[in-house]
Backbone:
């Protein structure tokens, strides 16, 4: 438990260079709110969907950015600051270490999304009832977990290469469209629609939009189960990848390369 | 100074072309943003609107590359310990920082090509440029104006070690208030005057007018005017923030 929490806290502090927490505000508060407004106005201009559609979609994307970049950099950042060899030499249990690092990214993703949602709803004048809040929170937590899983897969690449941010950036960009966050899925080509069913966020966003449209918790249980299930698969694949890449990195002496 | 400037642009372009992050970001993001716009606007009913969206996306990428890419470039200088050397060089600081911004803006032309090719191949948008000469001039004016707007932001990047974070946060707000993908009439009236002082507004208008047959020259003229204003402001800001950073000895803080 000590390793689990200390790994999480230390990694989180290092992630933001929290000598001073001002880095949090521009990237994780201003950016997602501006993103929500941008796509909401684009939707208004095109006459497609409501503000609530874009508010929910981009709120979930905000959570994904925090979770994926956070988890990716929690491993990739070690290489940048040349502490990766020390980390790999430590005798701690890898499962505990990586899941300990995943927990703060899930929580930060949730916090970021909550701030973005509240501010975005206030600016766009979107109302969500108190009764719907619990279901929205559950949908968001499930999506944050899934994104942390994908982030772990991305972070594992940091054991082999330098540009973790590159993969996280591409994934985060792809999710804007593939998850249906900003384009109704029925407008996308069939191949993209098929892909959307196995990427993070899709089911979480669908669940949240159903809640906003009046569905109850019992009606979105299946969607939440799918989102959490996909998250569990990504998390498992990520853990397998870090083990494999650690072994490969030791063999090729890749931990010191920068 | 001219030699320093030209060498700086050349070095920055070489770095950008060696950077997997910048190359792929400039390949992927225009495609994503343009695709969202194309799918929302509906390709069949309004092909010319889609071409305008493609041009808007290209200008968005220029701004993104300047504000995020250049912020990242300055962050890297800080991490690698070369920012101090850059500041200590016996030439005005503007001649070493401006090339980073201008080259980043110019790299955005690659985004324009990607967007147009993508739109043409997948959505069949009509790519017809009414006045090619004015289009090229508008493109250059847009690159320089956006690069110099970035120079003002860069002066704060010299001081703060969170340059990349600040750059990222400035991306969407400028996209919104300059009306690159949707008309400003959708926004509150007070946004209008803000858009007048931002280079992407005039750059986009100039490029769009030259492509669609309007008169691009007034907008090109505005690009020149705001560029000169940005240069004047950035010279003052750079001098002030450089002094502040020297006083705080913060160039080395990564």
Residues:
């Amino acid at each position: 438990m000590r390793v689990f929490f200390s790994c999480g806290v230390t990694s989180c502090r290092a992630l933001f260079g929290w000598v001073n927490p001002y880095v949090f505000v521009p990237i994780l508060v201003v950016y997602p709110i501006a993103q929500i407004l941008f796509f909401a106005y684009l939707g208004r201009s095109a006459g497609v969907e409501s503000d609530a559609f874009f508010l929910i979609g981009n709120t979930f994307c905000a959570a994904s950015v925090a979770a994926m970049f956070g988890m990716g950099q929690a491993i990739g950042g070690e290489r940048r600051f040349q502490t990766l060899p020390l980390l790999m030499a430590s005798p701690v249990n890898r499962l505990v270490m990586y899941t300990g690092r995943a927990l703060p990214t899930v929580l930060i993703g949730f916090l970021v999304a909550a701030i973005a949602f509240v501010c975005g709803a206030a600016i766009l004048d979107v109302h969500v009832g108190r009764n719907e809040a619990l279901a929205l929170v559950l949908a968001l937590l499930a999506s944050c977990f899934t994104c942390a899983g994908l982030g772990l897969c991305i972070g594992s690449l940091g054991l082999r290469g330098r540009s973790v941010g590159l993969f996280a950036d591409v994934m985060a960009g792809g999710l804007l469209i593939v998850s249906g966050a900003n384009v109704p899925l029925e407008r996308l080509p069939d191949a993209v629609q098929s892909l959307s069913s196995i990427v993070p966020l899709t089911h979480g966003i669908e669940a949240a939009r159903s809640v906003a449209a009046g569905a109850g918790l019992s009606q979105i249980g299946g969607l939440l189960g799918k989102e959490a299930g996909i998250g569990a698969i990504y998390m498992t694949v990520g853990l397998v990848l870090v083990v494999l890449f650690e072994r490969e990195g030791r063999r090729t002496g890749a931990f010191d390369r920068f | 100074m001219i030699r320093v400037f030209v060498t700086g642009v050349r070095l920055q372009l070489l770095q950008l072309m060696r950077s997997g992050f910048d190359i792929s970001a400039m390949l992927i993001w225009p495609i994503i943003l343009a695709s969202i716009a194309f799918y929302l606007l509906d390709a069949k009913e309004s092909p010319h609107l889609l071409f305008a969206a493609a041009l808007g996306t290209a200008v968005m990428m220029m701004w993104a590359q300047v504000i995020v890419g250049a912020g990242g470039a300055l962050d890297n200088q800080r991490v690698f310990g070369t920012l101090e050397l850059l500041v200590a060089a016996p030439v005005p600081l503007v001649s070493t920082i401006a090339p980073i911004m201008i080259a980043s803006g110019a790299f955005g032309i690659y985004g324009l090509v990607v967007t147009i090719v993508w739109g043409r191949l997948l959505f069949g948008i009509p790519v017809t440029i009414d006045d090619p000469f004015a289009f090229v001039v508008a493109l250059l004016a847009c690159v320089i104006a956006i690069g110099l707007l970035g120079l003002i932001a860069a002066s704060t990047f010299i001081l703060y070690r969170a340059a990349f974070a600040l750059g990222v946060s400035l991306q969407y707000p400028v996209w919104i208030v300059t009306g690159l993908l949707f008309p400003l009439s959708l926004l509150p009236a007070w946004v209008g005057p803000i858009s007048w002082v931002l280079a992407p507004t005039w750059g986009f208008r100039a490029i769009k007018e030259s492509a669609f047959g309007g008169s691009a020259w007034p907008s090109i003229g505005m690009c020149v005017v705001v560029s000169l204003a940005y240069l004047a402001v950035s010279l003052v800001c750079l001098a002030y923030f450089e002094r502040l950073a020297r006083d705080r000895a913060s160039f080395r803080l990564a």
Summary: The longest helix of chain A spans residues 221-252. Chain A has a mean pLDDT of 85. Chain A has ten helices and no strands.
